[in-house]
Design brief:
A: mainly alpha, B: alpha/beta, FAD/NAD(P)-binding domain, seven-stranded antiparallel sheet
Chain lengths: ~150, ~525
């Protein structure tokens, strides 16, 4: 496996854990890599310097992925990171090894659901603010770099 | 030469052919006829396929991942899976330019109805008011088609909008969410009815029990992915059985460009382009039946006139049902498990009484069961992990209402030809009725109110108005007319312009109720076939 393929598989594994699918199978990661090789993920519009930087940051770990994804959903929702995450989710939900982990309910009642949603929305809001602090300077740097 | 030559193999074409054969006529069917792929592991459920297929990703997502709905992509949720794309693949000689309209065409065996969700709703007398016949005339043919294809439904509160024909089989088993909705309706029925809202079982062309080589529904959850047991009816099934009959000849791989007529305006032959050799051939005809679908039929009709005398008439009155998709969540089912092995399409429907009977609003209710969820998760305004967590915990509570509005023939909506004679294009223009926006808002508001009464919540801003053309209920360009007039047909759908030409598809409908028209297309085609036989 070449270096790029290895990076993609590690990236897929990190993103899979972030999505709550646990450890992704080797075949799922190979499929994730295959989609990249077919050129369906990276498009010119979705792959600015900032998009690539965001993906690089997201590879650092699941918390970094969450922070980067929160920012991307608000400001780069059609960007490279979101495309990669959606692709991986589609791959995970269409194989029996991971389908239940991404598509089976985990709460038992409407009340528990409402409480947990409220908590998750608060976390989202906090991460959105943190993301602004972290990624806005990065965005400026990337824009400046592109201009040069 | 056959007694009858039919162009197309869709819902209208195959039922016209079947009736004509049953009446002793010989039939030639000319069609492009892209075959559908062989069913994959026909006994496995949607969930089982994820385990049993060697490469489930290829089946669910496509060889080039075309089934993945990326952020900002143009696809719709509940869009068609990759292996169904053959239905909408165009062919080079057929070209449409449109404005205000996003037309689909099919060159598949069975035509556009290969993507049909089976909704089978007979028109009532009020909806047939502009037709030159009433329910008494077409009713026996609803009975006949129901017997042929199998239709399930119930004589319930929706019967006030949909006549109960014969051969209506008992409905399928309900999934948990649909059961909850129907039980709740029982408790709020009077209040909803006072508001003009009625609720009940949808009607669908699906078999409960094995019949004629088809299997009864086994609740595999694969309706959208093409029923592998042929429980859910599509016209290609009838076509396969017709091909085995002695008086039936099927000529596929042929694209009909136009027909040639003589000075007495009698059709003599059709010109077909053989798609394997790219050669144009003529086929003599005794009686010609155009049943290629409203837009292709209109193009053949217009091209034939244009080639003969250079004229380019405009066919006014193009219609289609405006559809709005309204997602909802059933508050009592948040966090509940969903049924993986159930019938996937609509099992329930709303009927909203209109100011007049013709302004009836029809809305199909599909609860979410087996489905891909990444398109839902990506649509929420949150990071994907949070969206996914919410999606999987509301999966069993989610549903979608498809709200249909009626349409009328208007001069501003039309088709005509452009381009030079050897390479014409069909130009389709659609202008919504002046009242459409207000009608749509009113219908949406009533549906939201009805859903709320059923304990369901509609997330703000999530209703999606589908582009005109998406419902694929095209009709009205060469309508039935009680009086003899050019560019119309008589009550038997025989052309007023050409004595041995019949039009058997939606082009002849003078009005489009808010209902899926496929069942009526089949019944009407059988009706007119019985009258020329």
């Amino acid at each position: 496996m070449n270096a790029e393929a290895s990076i993609l598989e590690r990236e897929g594994a990190t993103f899979g854990r972030y999505l709550g699918a646990g450890e992704s199978s080797h075949r799922a990661l190979a499929k994730y890599r295959e989609a990249h090789e077919l050129g369906v993920v990276v498009t010119s519009a979705a792959s600015t310097r900032f998009d690539r930087a965001l993906v690089g940051f997201a590879r650092l770990g699941t918390f970094a992925t969450r922070l980067a994804d929160t920012h991307a959903r608000l400001f780069r929702k059609g960007g490279l990171l979101r495309r990669k995450l959606v692709l991986l989710l589609a791959i995970l939900e269409t194989h029996a090894d991971t389908a239940d982990r991404v598509d089976a309910p985990t709460v038992g009642s409407p009340a528990v659901f409402v409480v947990e949603v409220a908590f998750r929305l608060i976390v989202f809001a906090v991460l959105a603010l943190v993301g602004l602090v972290v990624f806005l300077p990065l965005r400026v740097v990337c824009a400046f770099g592109s201009a040069r | 030469m056959s007694d009858v030559t039919i162009v197309g193999s869709g819902a209208s074409a195959v039922h016209f052919a079947q009736t004509a054969l049953e009446r002793g006529l010989s039939v030639t069917m000319v069609d492009v006829g892209r075959p559908r792929p062989a069913p994959v592991r026909p006994d496995d459920s949607f969930a089982e396929l994820k385990r049993t297929l060697d490469d489930p990703w290829r089946y669910f997502l496509g060889a080039r991942f075309e089934g993945v709905l990326f952020p900002g992509g143009k696809g719709e949720y509940y869009g068609f899976p990759p292996h169904k794309e053959y239905i909408f693949e165009s062919i080079e000689p057929y070209s449409v330019e449109s404005r205000g309209f996003e037309p689909l065409a099919s060159f598949a065996r069975g035509g556009l109805a290969e993507a049909w969700t089976g909704g089978s709703f007979p028109f009532n007398d009020a909806e047939l008011e502009d037709f030159p016949f009433g329910y008494d005339d077409i009713g026996p043919f609803y009975d006949l088609v129901a017997q042929r294809i199998g239709i399930v439904g119930a004589n319930d509160d929706l019967a006030r909008f949909m006549p109960v024909h014969r051969n209506l089989d008992a409905p399928l088993d309900l999934d948990r969410h649909s059961t909850a909705l129907l039980e709740r309706y029982g408790r709020v029925r009077e209040r909803m009815n006072a508001d003009g809202a009625f609720f009940g079982r949808s009607r669908a062309a699906v078999l409960r029990e094995d019949r004629d080589g088809r299997k009864g529904c086994d609740y595999l959850g694969r309706c959208l992915w093409t029923c592998p047991r042929e429980s859910l009816y599509t016209p290609a099934m009838t076509l396969e059985r017709l091909i085995a009959k002695p008086n039936f000849r099927y000529l596929d791989q042929r694209f009909v460009t136009h027909f040639r007529f003589d000075g007495d305006r009698r059709v003599r032959a059709i010109a077909t382009l053989d798609l394997t050799t790219n050669k144009v051939e003529e086929l003599d005809v005794e009686r010609l039946v155009l049943a290629a679908g409203t837009l292709p039929t209109s193009k053949i009709f217009l091209d034939s006139i244009h080639r003969a005398n250079g004229e380019r008439p405009r066919l006014t009155g193009l219609m289609d049902n405006r559809q709005t998709l309204v997602p909802f969540a059933n508050l009592k089912l948040l966090g509940a498990k969903w049924d993986p092995d159930t019938y996937q399409y609509h099992q329930l429907a709303f009927g909203l009484a209109g100011r007049t009977p013709k302004e009836y609003v029809h809305a199909l209710v599909t609860t979410l069961k087996s489905a891909l969820i990444h398109p839902i998760a990506l649509s929420a305004p949150l990071d994907l992990a949070t969206s996914l967590w919410i999606t999987k915990n509301v999966h069993g509570a989610l549903g979608l209402v498809n709200v249909n509005l009626h349409d009328t023939r208007r001069a501003e909506s039309y088709v005509e030809l452009s381009g030079d004679v050897e390479r014409t294009k069909l130009v389709a223009r659609y202008e919504p009725a002046p009242t459409e926006l207000a009608d749509r808002k009113r219908a949406l508001s009533r549906i939201k109110r009805a859903l709320w009464q059923l304990g369901c919540f509609v997330p703000p801003g999530m209703a999606h108005v589908r582009p005109m053309g998406a419902s694929v209920h095209y009709s009205g360009t060469l309508p039935m007319s009680k009086t003899r007039a050019p560019l119309t047909v008589d009550r038997d759908c025989r052309s007023h312009d050409f004595e041995n030409l019949w039009l058997a598809d939606g082009a002849t409908f003078p009005f489009l109720p808010a209902k899926n028209l496929t069942f009526t297309l089949m019944a009407n085609a059988s009706r007119i076939a019985s009258r020329i036989a």
